[in-house]
Amino acid sequence: MSDESPVSLACAVLTVSDTRSAGDDTSGNLLAQNLARAGHQCVRRDIVKHDLYQIRRILSEWIADPEVQVIITTGGTGFAPRDQTQKAVLPLLDHDVPGFGELFRQLSHADIGSSAIQSGAFAGSANRTLIFCLPGSNNACETAWEQILREQLDSRHRPCNFATQFKNREEDN
User: Fold this and answer.
1) How many Cβ atoms from other residues are within 10 Å of residue 142's Cβ?
2) Could you tell me the CATH number of the domain that includes residue 100?
3) Cα 29 off chain centre by
4) pLDDT tens-digit profile of 115-160?
5) What percent of the chain is modeled with pLDDT above 70?
6) 3-class DSSP state of 16
7) Domain that holds residue 66
8) Model's pTM, two decimal places?
């Protein structure tokens, strides 16, 4: 880490769940709290059911919003038939970050063994907005945050990070 001041990113958190509400969205709360502790702002937050088109609607709005720089979704990335996050998000991406899913599954293997292969965690970007799609469990969100996202969203992390792509975003628009 360098001595420079960190860049504060404008982030959004989307929970994909048929059962969660604002009162019990523990994984969404965990992500929003971790973002705040790291000096980022959670500028959008929502909960959506496992509905392909509702997921796309919300994400498309956030991707088009110049204020939103990073989107983190939680839930809907598994192997169950109702899990729709991959189907909803992949067509929206301009670029993918294949190393994110690979690294996440490697790290998850230490906790859940071979069940890690059923995680469809992935990342990419659309309209210069980073999108990270995580499983819905608190443990998975904590693993992703502590071992990948915290550093990669910190502009001081070297040799590289995602945050530096957004330093001058306002000048680009």
Assistant:
1) 16
2) 3.40.980.10
3) 13
4) 888 888 999 999 999 999 999 999 999 999 999 999 999 999 999 9
5) 94
6) strand
7) 16-172
8) 0.93
Q: How many domains in the chain?
A: 1
Report pLDDT for 167: 46
Asked if 148 and 133 touch (Cβ cutoff 8 Å), the reply is: no
Residue 74 belongs to a domain = yes
Is 3 inside a domain boundary? no
Alpha-carbon distance values, 132 to 125, 144, 158 (Å): 9, 9, 20
CA gap 52, 49 in Å, rounded: 9
CB 73 within 8 A of CB 132: yes
141: alpha, beta or left? (left if phi > 0; alpha if psi -120 to 50): alpha
| Structural domain includes residue 5 | no
Longest dimension (CA), the chain: 47
Flag whether 1 is in a domain.
no
Distances (CA, A) of 149 to 20, 29, 56, 93, 142: 23, 16, 23, 19, 10
Q: Distance of alpha carbon 19 from its chain centroid, rounded?
A: 20
